[in-house]
Amino acid sequence: MILIDDNTKIIPGHGNQSNKKEYTTFLNMLENLKNKVETEISNKKTEEDVVLNSSLTKTYDDLNYGCCFISSEKMRRTLYKSLKK
Asked: How confident is residue 14, by pLDDT bands cut at 50, 70 and 90?
């Protein structure tokens, strides 16, 4: 079952109206960061180690993704806490 297609308009809780392509880019970013943080956890890194490791989000920081609503540090901390359970 297809829930969204190329004609779907996505209205996020903040920011501008979006579409399937932007949603897919966002989902890929989350999956990539999740995998990186999982690797850090498996390597016995602490929460603070992960929060301070800006290389985990560098690709997205260079695109200015962590500038505003959710900082890169907050994203790394949130992922760590959600995966460490």
From this structure: confident
Q: Is residue 2 part of a domain?
A: no
Does residue 15 lie in a domain region?
A: no
What pLDDT is recorded for position 68? 78
Does 1 reside within a domain? no
Residues 19, 10: contact at Cβ < 8 Å? Answer: yes
| Model pTM score | 0.86
For residue 55, tell me if it sits in a domain.
yes
Question: First-to-last CA distance in the chain?
Answer: 31
What is the residue range of 62's domain? 20-84
Task: With beta carbons less than 8 A apart as the criterion, state whether 72 and 61 touch.
Answer: yes
Average pLDDT, stretch 17-38? Answer: 95
Domain count for the chain: 1
Distance of CA 69 to the CA centre of its chain: 12
